[in-house]
Amino acid sequence: MKFDTHYYDGFERKWRDHLEDVAARNGIESLLIMRSTETHMVAAVSAGPKRDTYHPGDAGPKSVVPGCHKLYCEQVVKDRAPLHVPDAASDPEWEGNEDYVRFGLGAYLGYPIEVDGEVLGTICALHDAPFDFEGGSPSLRQELERLKTEIEYDLKEAV
User: Is this structure's pTM higher than 0.70?
Assistant: First the structure.
């Protein structure tokens, strides 16, 4: 299912190279900026070696759609808080997650993107094996936190 891809015209173009750089430096399989709708999480920007797994506009159904398991990013939006899933294969809560079942991406770290008190989506990293989000200087965790702040500022300025 395809949805409108962007937060604003030019958003994907502006952020794609930033995410590709962070993905390459950290060796992460997939780095995404997602947009939340009532029923789906929609890829706005996709980077990393698995960037073709999620094209801008691709949408994953949330658990409100009958028969669908909750998505990692859906949980981030719902809780308005970061989520770290070290290994979906060993976590009964996440073993049915679409990212893990369909694409083998069982390690996840994501942060909510908020503007003026509204959660618009997420910035997240996914990997096909347990991943050290704390390693490196800066760590991928720190890079995602920085990107979150920069994206929120960008979106606030665009309004």
Answer: yes
